[in-house]
Amino acid sequence: MVNKDQVKGIAKQAKGAVKEAAGKVSGNKRTEAEGTGDKAAGKVQKGYGDIKEKVKGAL
Q: What is residue 57's three-state secondary structure?
């Protein structure tokens, strides 16, 4: 089963990857850094969702 935190985390990772790539192509270091940050935040959120699912499954 997939919960909303997992979905939002994956979406944030994808958004961050696009933003990071756009920053690289345009030479905009700020956009690239924001994209990297979004990807990291998405990984954390997805990890939180994964843990919630594991706990839910254990109960």
A: helix
Cβ(9)–Cβ(44) under 8 Å?
yes
Q: Taking Cα atoms as reference points, which of 42, 50, 18, 46 lies closest to residue 31?
A: 18
Tokens representing residue 29 in the block: 């270091």
In contact, 22 and 31? CB cutoff 8 Å: yes
pLDDT digits (tens, 9 = 90+) for 10-20: 999 999 999 99
pLDDT tens for 23-39 read: 999 999 999 999 999 99
The answer to whether 9 and 48 are in contact (CB under 8 A) is: yes
> Length of the chain in residues, anyone?
59
pTM of the model: 0.85
**Amino acid letter for position 37:** G
